[in-house]
Amino acid sequence: MSATFKDEETEQLFQLVHMFQRSALLHMGMIPDNEGNHIFNLAEAKAGIDMLQVLQNKTKGNITDQEERMFRGVVSELQLQFLKAPKRNREMEDAAAQSETVRETFTNPQSGPVEDLSASKDDEE
Questions:
Q1: N or C: which end of the chain has fewer CB atoms below 10 A?
Q2: Alpha carbon of 14 to those of 8, 21, 31, 40: distances in Å?
Q3: Beta-carbon neighbour count of residue 70 at 10 Å?
Q4: For the range 80-83, what are the long-range contacts, defined as Cβ-Cβ under 8 Å and sequence gap of 24 or more?
């Protein structure tokens, strides 16, 4: 048993909390799945956070103040990350699109984007 928790049941409770936390983080694209892919499914992330809130409400008065603070911290951090998730997803999609453009340019340079950097005679004057 971990020195953080007072008994085995409390440790098991926080293992359950960690499972829902990990699920929410996974579905917000914050951690990769087993194959290294990032998943973005806000409905699943919200379901995990909601389940944690239910557990938090149902355990109120049955856990120590320290455990309550830990629980509240997990839920609060997930809620904050949930609000940031759409922006993070857009940034990941933009980065992936940019990477694909660069990859395509090097794979098939004839059809890649072209930027003419040569100066015309009119521009030199």
A1: C
A2: 10, 10, 19, 25
A3: 16
A4: 81/24, 81/25, 81/28, 81/30, 82/24, 82/28, 82/42, 82/45, 82/46, 82/49
Integer CA distances (angstroms), 16 to 11, 12, 23, in order: 9, 6, 11
Positive or negative torsion for Cα 34, 78, 44, 60: positive
Closest to 43 (Cα-Cα) out of 56, 24, 29, 30: 24
CA dihedral 19, 34, 92, 99 (to 10 degrees): 170
Task: Please report which confidence band the pLDDT of residue 121 belongs to, taking 50, 70 and 90 as the band edges.
Answer: low
